Amino acid sequence: xxxxxxxxxxxxxxxxxxxxxxxxxxxxxxxxxxxxxxxxxxxxxxxxxxxxxxxxxxxxxxxxxxxxxxxxxxxxxxxxxxxxxxxxxxxxxxxxxxxxxxxxxxxxxxxxxxxxxxxxxxxxxxxxxxxxxxxxxxxxxxxxxxxxxxxxxxxxxxxxxxxxxxxxxxxxxxxxxxxxxxxxxxxxxxxxxxxxxxxxxxxxxxxxxxxxxxxxxxxxxxxxxxxxxxxxxxxxxxxxxxxxxxxxxxxxxxxxxxxx
Length: 260
Prior knowledge:
Shape: globular
Number of helices: 7
Number of strands: 5
Order of helices and strands: HEHHEHHEHEHE
Strand order of the largest sheet: 1-2-3-4-5
Distance between the termini: 9 Å
Oligomer: single chain
Radius of gyration: 17 Å
Low-confidence stretches: 231-236, 238-260
Mean pLDDT: 88
């Protein structure tokens, strides 16, 4: 996995990684495209759903300018920046040339501080952290702490946002079969709100097709395997299992693997 959301990774650096992956015959590149600290992919307002007034260009313009700050491990701040849609297509094409599939991750309902910081519509009574009353959005977060942010499962804009972003990412990733929805470390989300959100969002992802009209398979971290109702057939990360499991063969999940 590459994590340009916390600290931006340039296109040449990603392309170098793809070349190295090809040398080792690795065939999946997990790109972490959203988190609390930053948002590294341009999303446009094209093909918004009827009635959708969210300005998605703010995701990259506002939260592409933020990154993780200095940590206990380093005094250096993270790198800010974002991929244009042409940049992302370049990465996808380079990966495909080496038979590598790009697996984008749009994390939710937690790890969403950058989205909440950029989009006022996502800030509502059930979202966390609370919005700054002066700006109407969650303050920027440059720490490495996790679990404080959450989308509001009762806010229709949460699902409008997920559908629009997932549709645009899928359109730029024509051979992509998988879309990672995160689902990890939602410590500020109640159990019922988490289940409500994940059940609906997973269904939305599973009903999305890429530009080749192939349906996406949603991917989640371990928490979603035990905390959501799994209405679709997601894949999930666990020790020793990284590939889709057929419906009806999901083992009970209790332990968590390392996540985003």
